[in-house]
Each structure stands twice: as structure tokens, then as C-alpha cells.
Amino acid sequence: MSIGYACLALGVKDSSMKTCMKKNASESRLKELIENNLDSLENLIDYNIKSGIKLFRISSDLIPFGSSPVNGLQWWKIYAERFSLIGNKIRENNIRVSMHPGQYTVLNSQDEEVVERAVEDLIYHCRVLEGLGTGNESKIILHIGGVYNDKKKSANRFSENCRRLPDNVRQRLVIENDDRSYNISDVLEIGKRLGIPVVFDNLHNSINPSSAEKTEEFWINECRATWSEKDGNQKIHYSQQAIDKRAGAHSESIDVKCFLDFYSVLGKKDIDIMLEVKDKNLSAVKCMNCVNGSGKMKSLEIEWSKYKYSVLEKSLAAYNEIRELLKEKRGYPAVSFYSILENALGYAENAGNAVNAAMHVFGYFKRDASEKEKERVLNRIDKYKKGEDGLQPLKKELQRLSLKYEKEYLLESYYFLLK
């Protein structure tokens, strides 16, 4: 079983995907963007290898205008060697990758031009995965699409258009229940008819259920039957509802105790779980450490080195509680560690705690900084304490000095990342 995250990572240097407006998509500009994005993908894969993350969704933005006539480059040939290099890292480290086309890839549209674009987009996604040399266990996840006032007819249109796809695309295709139109029962019916694996999404199911009596465990087991050996492990999507936001909005972070409750009923553990959450890799590492971590305190100590000043910024009591927790080297209190951490990060901003954390961070380069730099930091602190300025300008100044004086310990932490 693997736990992963989607598309982008927090705190990973040089890992952003870039694009441009259509009017600026010249050949030279597209090459520049593709090269940046391939660098970013490789940096993300390197991070995943270092972190032990074996499940990762590649951004559809990897190749700007990848399925559009706007991009006339044969990018799969031009960058074949680069794709092969990244693909070797993926395969050698047993990382399972996937892709998920966006909301405009609608295979069951009533508009033939939209369908044609959807087919081209699915071919593009398949070309990326093939360029990386991945097997058919690396999937392309797709929603069924719209209802258009006749769900049965629209579902049949999806099936008909699906048969238009090239075989290599169909072999990678999996379909997922959504939060509005096609519930898990609808998608299972289509998947079984077409011989396509079905991904169960727990949050979509809670918003758009097929049956109030059927449990998540029931539907996951039903979906399992659609996955064959050539498809790899069954894959599911897991997310939690963001508080006070629209139904279906993903939470900022995964509540580890809720996740463990969900995980405990899965039974068989040969299921890959893709987390859909705002803090991406941070939640993936958290859940991994609680479910299938090394069981060694070292993994929690590494996590603490990244979170400690973010916790101190919110709560001195929580900071001290975690320090005491980690002094006991014989156990592995992962759940307790993350529970305290989650609670602390949820606290409201407190000026006294924030200044305390900022002074701790300032101490890393206090001896190196010039008098003007010290004065600037202290002025920022004074303005913040008086309510004349916010916390972020102070933290940006501290980040600038951390970069200047190459304080990697701080730069690799989440202090400048979490708010």
C-alpha cells in the first residue's frame, strides 16, 4: 500500500509548473517552459524518493498546451532523453505515477468539437506516461462528465466515445465518481460495462451518495472487482471536507485520527491512497508515518525539525509538550505527535508566541547580520507588537536573511511556508 499526493509539493525548491498565455506561446517560449517543468518534475521525483513517497500524480500542466494545436512541437521526441532519465528514477524507485485531466476534458459532451479535444487531451496524457516508460498501472483518471438532462443517454455517449480512444489510452483509463452527477453506483455500472477500473472517492461519495445504507468499505470492495492484475493495486482518493467552505472543498490538512479511522476499515492493505488536500506532501508524510512509517523516532525528529518554529509561533505549551514527547526514545508516538501538532497549528495568531518564534529564528544569523539588518528585523518586530504591521512582513525579512546567510535548517523547515 502507498500513500501519495497530487501534482505540487510544498517546501520543495524549484518545483513549480509554469505556463503562459496563448498569445505568448512561441516555440522558444514553449521550450523554455517545458524545460522548466521537466526540471520541476525531476525535483519532485527526487523529493519523493528522499521522502519514501511511492504514489504521485503528475500535473497536467507539465507540457503547456500539450494537446492543443497552439503547441506544434513534437515535445515527446525533442525531450525523449529527458523523459527517459526521469522515468528511470520513477521505475527504479517503484513510484507509481498517474495523471488527472481537468474539468474541460469531457468525453460525453454533446458538442463533437469538445469530444475531439477530450480525445486529444487523453492522448496527450498517455503520451507523457509512455514517455516516462511507465506501465499500465500508471493511470489516467477521468470523470464521466455532464448529465445534459438525460443521465442514461449521457452515460451511453461516454461509453460510445470511450471506444473511440486508441487502445494504449484505454488501457490506462480509470473512471471516478464525482460530487454532483455520477455517483459511485453509476460509475461502477459504466466501468463494468467497458472493463475500466473504478476509483472510489470518499468525499464525493459523502456529497453525492448512491445509497445511504452502503458503507465506504462496501463501495471500495465493489470497486476492487474492477481492478485486474495488469492495472496494479486498486487506487482510491481520500480527502476531508474543509470547515466552513463549500461542499467538496478539500481541507488544508488531513486530520490524522480521522484518516486512521478510515484506514482501519479498509481490511486489505494492497490499496493505494491518493490524498487530495491543500498541504499536499505534508499530509502524505504525516499519514505515512502513522500508518507504515519506520517506527523509529528519527522520522518524527526529522518532522519536528521542520515544524518546530511553526508550532512555537502558535503555542509555547504545545512546543514544550512535543519536546517532552520526543525525549522518550523507546516508543513511537506518531499519532500523539501529529495530534498535538495539528491542534497547535489550528490556534489563532498570538503576538507573544509569534515574536518568541521570530526571535528564535533571528538567533540563527544574529551574529552574521549587519547592524542595519539587525535594526530592520527589530523594527519589524516592534511594529508587529504595536499592531502597526502584520506578521508576514517580519517573516519575509527573516526569510530573506536566511537565504542570504544560507541557513538551510530554516529554509528546509515549514516556518516560512505555513501561515
Brief overview, please?
This protein has 419 residues and is an alpha/beta fold. It is 50% helix and 8% strand. The relative contact order is 0.09.
What does this molecule look like?
By secondary structure, the chain is an alpha/beta fold. It folds into two domains: 286 residues, TIM Barrel; 115 residues, no CATH class. Helix content is 50%, strand content 8%. The protein is built from 18 helices and eight strands. Strands 3-2-1-8-7-6-5-4 form an eight-stranded parallel sheet. Helix 10 packs across helix 11, helix 12 runs parallel beside helix 14 and helix 15 packs parallel to helix 17. The longest helix has 25 residues. The radius of gyration is 24 Å and the shape is globular. The two termini are 32 Å apart.
Key traits:
single chain, 419 residues, alpha/beta, TIM Barrel, 2 domains, eight-stranded parallel β-sheet, 8 strands, globular
- Class of secondary structure makeup: alpha/beta
Per DSSP E runs of 2 or more residues, the count of β-strands stands at 8
Order of helices and strands: EHEHHEHEHHEHEHHEHEHHHHHHHH
| Low-pLDDT windows of residues | none
> Which radius of gyration do the C-alpha atoms yield?
24 Å
CATH architecture of the largest domain: Alpha-Beta Barrel
Number of domains: 2
Measured as a percent range, the helix fraction is 40-55%
In the CATH scheme, what's the topology name of the largest domain? Answer: TIM Barrel
**Major sheet: order of its strands?**
3-2-1-8-7-6-5-4
- CATH-level-4 superfamily name of the largest domain: Divalent-metal-dependent TIM barrel enzymes
Number of helix segments?
A: 18
CATH class of the largest domain: Alpha Beta
